[in-house]
Amino acid sequence: MSETLVTGLVVFVLASFVGFEIINKVPPTLHTPLMSGANAISGIAVVGAILAGGAAQLSGPTILGLVAIVLAMVNVVGGFWVTDRMLQMFKK
Q: Contact at 8 Å (CB) between 1 and 37?
């Protein structure tokens, strides 16, 4: 394996572990507002995916970029939908 691939895998595993531990420690009352903010940040992934998927030729990275656009948009829309439902609970 190349050194770049090993470095990428190590960063991915460490980020996954740290992310899991941080989310696991968040109390349930704060989970939805924090995830709402995280979903807003996920919009950045949409911009990056648009750049990757916007190539004129259909290739592997272009297809992965298009899949990333779809998945990131599902995440963003779903997150704001859940946040809206949560905020509706506080209205009388």
A: no
Model confidence, pTM: 0.54
Of 74, 16, 19, whose CA–CA distance to 46 is shortest? Answer: 74
Shortest CA distance to 61 belongs to which of 74, 72, 49?
49
88 pLDDT above the threshold of 90: no
CA nearest to 71, candidates 79, 60, 82, 83: 79
Distance CA 72, CA 14 (A): 22
Whether the pLDDT of residue 36 is over 80: the answer is: no
Q: Report DSSP state, residue 58.
A: -
Q: Answer for the pair 27, 77: CB distance below 8 angstroms, yes or no.
A: no
